[in-house]
């Protein structure tokens, strides 16, 4: 169904499942499942529909460059002919899936380069801010920056991937007041101006994390990419309550104080991940609104995928380019820019949810930040579910403490030998011995991080850094600490068990298994993601955000004792906040109610007023 | 009476290192006070004294004596009463030195029990040992001018393959006697050896053997093939000689060369002995002891043991034999006592002949015996490697023909399957399946061997008379009967088989008679920990199919097509594909010839371009096709402090990106002229024997021991390298190497590509813009 340009995009909402609710879509790697959720005690959180894209993105970009936020002069005023300019940009991990050409980075970089050309600059370097990610291939760089930029800069060696393991390329600029080493690319440190081109797909992206993480290496990253930090980031998608971000912010301010001038450009995209029409359009529609064509297409797609080999399916999905549209662009001083950007991300993604759940279910798609043009190996599956999706909350986790997470993904015992060599060894050696993030960090992290062979592969081939799989597992630390059990539906049982999770053949089996942990007739919440959504979880007992949960912690919370602080975000015991797992009388079947309209906490006021969610009564 | 007759005498014994000989020495030492024993043993490298010490006195048969006398008392007694003398019955004059001759001349009794007892002895060896041995002994005694009482140990089976009674009479007086001249037979046996040796060196035969060696080893290089060919030739000669023995024996009515040569020996000794008094003791099939020195004592593997163990393991499902037929088995201590008793008798002018057998007085039917064995293994099963008890089959005696047909059919089927797999270019797990098949075929062949060897014995329907033996027994006073029991009638077969013999055989065969406690570490795990032990010095790796699933053709294809327009790429690859069969054939014949000719294709390739593209090939081809477990293994070796070396026939620029993985890389190099490769190698590429030589040179230069080194390779062309080190590892072996590695007990690793790794149908380079 083509986008109805006369209709306002509907915000995300929560559907209460009753007997008439159709089976719900679960992403399942390079495939999908339709699962019937238990009526009367389940709900589905849907993302908001795609916001309208900016009508003229290039004009908006130019406008942002000339009207910077915070304490910053316009870009044109910062440029001088004799200066060194470094443009750093986000790597292949953003956006997901990769977007259709022209990539937003290309638009922004071209605008910046135009300004530089107008100012008569010629010492310009473009750096893919990889940190410890794999190097981007020529094709990937061309896709990100466009052929024109690539051909102008790459042959002369002025467009390149960051090499965080090249001692000549990296420089330590200082330490934070908490002893965190601050490291950055030497060219960036020695430039008169660093322009960072961001693509903020989720709330964790951008801000000081761009430079302090993207342009640095292991010596700096290890201060916040560790289990202790991740356990104190609740969630790492919510900057004010994310120790990960606090640490980055401290490092960023050291960069600023060291005199490194950064002009930050952040952009946001809408939720148009699968297109308004086209073969995947139904993936961003609500199931009861699927048209006959959607259903036919879906069935055909399922049948087709079922006949394909794993490899072929991967290839088919890898070709998908998301038709994302630019929804905002901010430029100027890092922190001011980031505040505004985060608000714009939330405007698209935030969905208010009443209370926690006993069982959280999610379908994991075929892609995560680290397997673009690659293979989603089991470690990445864990990271996507327990790291990224689990943390897509503000306030309190969607699932109560001790609750169960059910993820659906084939979780094949497959690895990309070029991109993920250290993952293979991590999976075969480290995970075979322990799944405890703390234990593995003490015992193995350094060994993998300083391994000559991994270093060689990271620098000369296209491998993620040796330490990267550890980071993936640390990303799960909060969820592992919080959850009572993790069940993977339809996964390779051996791989699932290796990670300490429980394999289930069917969704119904998984629900049965979950009831062993959380009691019979648990409440179930399905996280209908992607397109992306972020849950704003409030106490069920009260209207409005859970008072304690949303109390913003004072900025950089250095004083918080590690690991103990945010465990109870709600004033009472979690059972008071969570909906009880007790059986509900069947007579109390409720009609699905859209909860979003009146209480949407973000977004331009009044824009959604008067909108009511309607539910098709068919089916 | 026995004790008195032999007390203080000096007795010479041949064959004391054998089963019966050891029992005899023990019996005499313990039973006859103060007799002295002159043990004629082949001195070997260590000398007769050491040999007697190691091969006779250390045996557990003497534990009883050692216990009663104490360690010092035993040593003292041995020092006084045992005189080892170096002697070889295969040599005229027995190779005795002067003191030995003097000692032999003083003996009152000579017991000759040396023999080549195996049933598959080559004809000439059987004749030399079994027939000429006693002849030489008698001649030596003549030379010495002494005429002691000669007690010759023969066998009941000299009666030949006959049915019915076989009494204790001289062969010449036997009604079935075929008159033969033993001298002619010896000459003929020696000539047969010469004929067969000549035959084995004929052009056609050698070509055939060479072909067989190549089929087994593949392109393993000239020295390895030469060694194999010679080994095969020797094996062929032996087989021919064994067959000659069996056929000659059968042609004159004997079950095998052993019985035949023993029979000839009886005739010969009786003919030439002149005034030397002679007694002949003919035991039947000697098995473990009934009571002395302890029940169940046995030495080495006897005739029935392999059959029993293989039956218990379930590998011998059927066997020939006549169920109601008599199997004549006699415990070793009864034989030893009977020999002592015979030696103590006053010899007459006629040779005394005594048969020590059970068939005549205490017969046991084959079916009774096998029922007992079946019952035994039902209660005391052997366990397989998974700790499951093996349930033995019950033999149905379908007759020899049926058994042989079944076995031949099984063998043929397995052979065909095996040949089919060998013809396919398989490696890794399917190749190991071929090795499994080969093991099964070996088992079938072994079973077949047992059937041919022992079939005659289990189908023998002769009843060996023991009248003389019983007469001797009845004539003994009670104290002798107690001290030297040899009455076969005392044997209770159930007790003997169930409680004495089988437990002893199982202990001797070191079979798993109980499930192993706790989780067992597999053999592979044990070998793996040996390979990775810190004491190792070096680990050498092959590249292709050991570290990566790729080859020189693929890397050439990648580099050559990288900068070609699309149409040309297709054409080039198409052309190369057409050449593949030829290339494969050349590779199979000689690896370095293949490399030399193939590398010509790099002629005029610019060095800069190749270097640049090699880096991309590292990611696109080498890493995508690498075996992560293999790479991990290299790193484990480095971590353990071993030197890691890559030795490959691939070109240096191809493997250059792998340098951080290894301490050193030995690779082929192309000559360069004006910034381009000439296509000529600068040195012989390190493959096959050159690879072993390169490894040797490297180890020598670096002061590393090859015996403490590990080598990983995938094909038989790497055999020289694998054989050069102490710890060879076959990685994803092709069928030939798989079966070799299995046989030699090498560690076999199956390294796979990363599951899910991208696959490329054709070896073309990723497009370069």
What does this structure look like?
The complex is a heterodimer of chains A (619) and B (769). By secondary structure, chain A is an alpha/beta fold. Helices cover 34% and strands 17% of the residues of chain A. Chain A has 23 helices and 20 strands. In chain A, the strands form 5 sheets. A 7-stranded mixed β-sheet of chain A has the order 1-4-19-14-16-17-18, with helices on both faces. A 6-stranded mixed β-sheet of chain A has the order 7-6-5-10-11-12, sandwiched between helices. A 3-stranded parallel β-sheet of chain A has the order 13-20-15. In chain A, a hairpin with a 5-residue loop joins β8 and β9 (181-185). Residues 542-619 of chain A have low confidence and may be disordered. With 769 residues, chain B is α/β, with parallel strands linked by helices. Chain B contains 28 helices and 19 strands. In chain B, the strands form 5 sheets. A 7-stranded parallel β-sheet of chain B has the order 3-2-1-4-5-7-10, with helices on both faces. In chain B, strands 14-13-12-17-18-19 form a 6-stranded parallel β-sheet, sandwiched between helices. Chain B is elongated. At the A-B interface, α15 and α17 of A face α23 and α24 of B.
Annotation keywords:
heterodimer; A: 619 residues; alpha/beta; seven-stranded mixed sheet; 20 strands; 17% strand; disordered C terminus; B: 769 residues; seven-stranded parallel sheet; six-stranded parallel sheet; 19 strands; elongated
């Amino acid at each position: 169904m083509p986008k109805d340009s006369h209709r306002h995009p509907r915000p995300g909402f929560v559907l209460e499942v009753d007997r008439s609710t159709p089976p719900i879509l679960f992403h399942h790697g390079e495939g999908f499942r339709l699962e019937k959720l238990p009526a009367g005690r389940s709900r589905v959180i849907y993302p908001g529909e795609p916001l309208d894209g900016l009508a003229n993105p290039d004009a908006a970009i130019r406008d942002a460059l000339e009207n910077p936020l915070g304490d910053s002069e316009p870009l044109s005023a910062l440029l001088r002919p004799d200066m060194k300019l470094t443009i750093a940009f986000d790597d292949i991990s953003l956006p997901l899936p990769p977007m259709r050409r022209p990539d937003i980075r290309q638009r922004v970089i071209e605008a910046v380069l135009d300004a530089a050309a107008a100012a008569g600059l010629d010492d310009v370097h473009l750096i893919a801010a990889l940190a410890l990610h794999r190097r981007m291939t020529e094709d990937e760089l061309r896709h990100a920056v466009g052929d024109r930029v690539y051909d102008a800069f790459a042959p002369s060696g002025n467009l390149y991937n960051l090499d965080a393991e090249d001692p000549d390329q990296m420089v330590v600029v200082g330490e934070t007041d908490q002893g965190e080493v601050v490291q950055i690319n030497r060219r960036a440190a020695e430039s008169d101006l660093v322009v960072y081109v961001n693509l903020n797909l989720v709330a964790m992206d951008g801000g000081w994390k761009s430079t302090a993480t993207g342009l640095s290496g292991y010596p700096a990253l290890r201060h916040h990419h560790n289990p202790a930090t991740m356990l104190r980031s609740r969630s790492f998608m919510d900057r004010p309550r994310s120790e990960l971000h606090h640490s980055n912010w401290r490092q960023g301010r050291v960069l600023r104080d060291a005199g490194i001038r950064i002009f930050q450009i952040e952009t946001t995209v809408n939720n148009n991940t699968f297109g308004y029409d086209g073969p995947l359009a139904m993936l961003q529609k609500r199931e009861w609104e699927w048209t006959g064509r959607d259903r036919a297409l879906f069935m055909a797609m399922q049948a087709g995928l079922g006949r394909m080999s794993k490899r072929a399916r991967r290839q088919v999905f890898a070709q998908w380019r998301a038709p994302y549209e630019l929804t905002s662009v901010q430029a100027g001083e890092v922190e001011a820019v980031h505040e505004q950007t985060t608000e714009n991300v939330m405007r698209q993604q935030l969905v208010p949810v009443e209370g926690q759940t006993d069982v959280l279910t999610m379908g994991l798609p075929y892609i995560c930040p680290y397997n673009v043009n690659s293979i989603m190996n089991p470690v990445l599956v864990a990271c996507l579910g327990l790291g990224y999706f689990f943390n897509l909350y503000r306030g309190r986790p969607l699932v109560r403490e001790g609750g169960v997470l059910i993820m659906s993904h084939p979780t094949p015992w497959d690895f990309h030998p070029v991109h993920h060599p250290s993952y293979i060894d991590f999976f075969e050696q480290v995970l075979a011995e322990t799944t405890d993030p703390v234990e593995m960090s003490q015992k193995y992290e350094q060994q993998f991080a300083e391994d000559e062979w991994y270093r060689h592969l990271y620098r000369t081939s296209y491998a993620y850094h040796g330490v990267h799989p550890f980071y993936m597992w640390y990303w799960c630390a909060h969820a592992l600490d919080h959850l009572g059990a993790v069940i993977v539906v339809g996964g390779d049982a051996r791989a699932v068990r290796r990670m300490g999770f429980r394999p289930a053949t069917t969704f119904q089996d998984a629900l049965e298994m979950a009831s062993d942990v959380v009691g019979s007739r648990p409440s179930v919440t399905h996280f209908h993601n992607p397109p992306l959504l972020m849950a704003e979880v409030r106490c069920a007992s009260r209207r409005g955000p859970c008072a304690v949960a949303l109390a913003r912690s004072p900025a950089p919370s250095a004083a918080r004792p590690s690991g103990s602080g945010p465990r109870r975000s709600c004033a009472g015991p979690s059972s008071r906040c969570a909906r009880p797992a007790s059986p509900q009388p069947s007579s109390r079947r409720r009609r699905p109610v859209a909860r979003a309209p009146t209480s949407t906490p973000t977004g331009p006021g009044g824009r959604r007023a008067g909108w009511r969610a309607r539910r098709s009564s068919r089916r | 009476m026995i004790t008195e007759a032999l007390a203080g005498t000096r007795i010479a014994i041949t064959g004391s290192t054998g089963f019966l000989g050891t029992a005899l020495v023990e019996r005499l030492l313990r039973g006859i006070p103060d007799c002295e024993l002159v043990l004629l043993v082949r001195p070997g490298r260590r000398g007769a004294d050491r040999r007697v010490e190691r091969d006779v006195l250390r045996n557990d048969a003497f534990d009883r004596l050692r216990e009663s006398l104490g360690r010092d008392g035993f040593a003292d007694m041995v020092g006084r009463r045992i005189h080892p003398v170096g002697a070889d019955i295969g040599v005229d004059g027995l190779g005795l030195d002067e003191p030995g001759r003097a000692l032999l001349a003083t003996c009152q009794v000579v017991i000759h029990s040396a023999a080549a007892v195996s049933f598959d002895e080559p004809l000439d060896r059987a004749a030399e040992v079994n027939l000429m041995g006693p002849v030489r002994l008698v001649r030596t005694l003549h030379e010495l001018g002494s005429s002691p009482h000669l007690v010759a140990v023969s066998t009941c089976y000299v009666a030949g393959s006959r049915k019915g009674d076989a009494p204790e009479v001289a062969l010449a007086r036997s009604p079935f006697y075929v008159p033969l001249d033993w001298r002619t037979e010896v000459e003929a046996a020696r000539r047969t050896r010469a004929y067969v040796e000549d035959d084995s060196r004929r052009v056609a035969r050698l070509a055939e053997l060479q072909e067989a060696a190549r089929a087994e080893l593949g392109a393993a290089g000239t020295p390895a093939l030469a060694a194999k060919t010679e080994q095969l030739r020797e094996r062929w000669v032996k087989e021919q000689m064994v067959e000659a023995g069996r056929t000659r024996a059968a042609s004159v009515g004997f079950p095998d060369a052993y019985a035949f040569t023993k029979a000839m020996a009886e005739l010969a000794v009786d003919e030439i002995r002149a005034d030397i008094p002679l007694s002949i003791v003919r035991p039947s099939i000697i098995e473990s002891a009934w009571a002395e020195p302890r029940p169940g004592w046995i030495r080495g593997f006897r005739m029935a043991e392999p059959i029993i163990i293989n039956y218990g393991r379930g590998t011998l499902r059927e066997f020939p034999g006549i169920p109601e037929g008599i199997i004549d088995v006699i415990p070793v201590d009864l034989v030893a006592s009977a020999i002592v008793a015979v030696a103590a008798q006053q010899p007459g002018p006629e040779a005394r002949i005594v048969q020590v057998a059970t068939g005549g007085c205490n017969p046991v039917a084959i079916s009774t015996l096998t029922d007992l064995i079946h019952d035994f293994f039902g209660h005391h099963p052997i366990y397989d490697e998974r700790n499951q008890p093996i349930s033995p089959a019950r033999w149905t005696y379908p007759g020899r023909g049926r058994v042989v047909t079944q076995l031949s059919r099984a063998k043929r089927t397995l052979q065909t399957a095996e040949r089919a797999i060998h013809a396919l270019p398989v490696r890794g797990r399917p190749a190991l399946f071929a090795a499994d098949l080969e093991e099964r075929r070996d088992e079938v062949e072994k079973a077949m061997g047992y059937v041919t060897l022992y079939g005659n014995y289990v189908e023998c329907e002769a009843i060996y008379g023991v009248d003389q033996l019983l007469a001797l027994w009845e004539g003994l006073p009670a104290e002798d009967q107690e001290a030297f029991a040899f009455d076969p009638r005392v044997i209770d077969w159930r007790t003997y088989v169930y409680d004495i013999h089988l437990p002893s055989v199982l202990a001797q065969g070191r079979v798993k008679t109980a499930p192993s406690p706790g989780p067992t570490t597999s053999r592979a795990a044990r070998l793996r920990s040996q390979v990775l032990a810190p004491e190792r010095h070096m680990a050498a790796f092959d590249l292709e199919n050991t570290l990566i699933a790729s080859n020189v053709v693929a890397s050439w294809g990648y580099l050559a097509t990288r900068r070609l327009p699309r149409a040309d790429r297709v054409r080039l690859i198409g052309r190369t594909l057409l050449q593949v069969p030829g290339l494969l054939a050349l590779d199979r014949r000689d690896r370095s010839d293949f490399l030399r000719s193939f590398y010509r294709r790099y002629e005029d390739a610019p060095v800069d371009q190749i270097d640049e593209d090699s880096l991309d090939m590292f990611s696109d081809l080498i890493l995508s096709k690498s075996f992560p477990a293999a790479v991990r293994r290299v790193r484990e070796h480095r971590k353990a402090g071993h030197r890691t070396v890559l030795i490959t026939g691939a070109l240096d620029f191809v493997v250059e990106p792998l340098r951080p993985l290894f301490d050193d890389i030995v690779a082929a190099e192309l000559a360069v002229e004006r910034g381009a490769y000439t296509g000529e190698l600068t040195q012989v590429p390190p493959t096959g024997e050159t690879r072993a030589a390169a490894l040797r040179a490297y180890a020598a230069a670096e002061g590393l021991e090859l015996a403490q080194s590990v080598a990983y390779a995938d094909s038989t062309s790497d055999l020289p390298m694998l054989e050069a080190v102490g710890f060879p590892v076959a990685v994803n072996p092709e069928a030939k190497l798989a079966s070799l590695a299995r046989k030699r007990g090498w560690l076999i690793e199956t390294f796979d590509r990363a599951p899910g790794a991208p696959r490329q149908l054709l070896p073309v380079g990723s497009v370069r813009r």
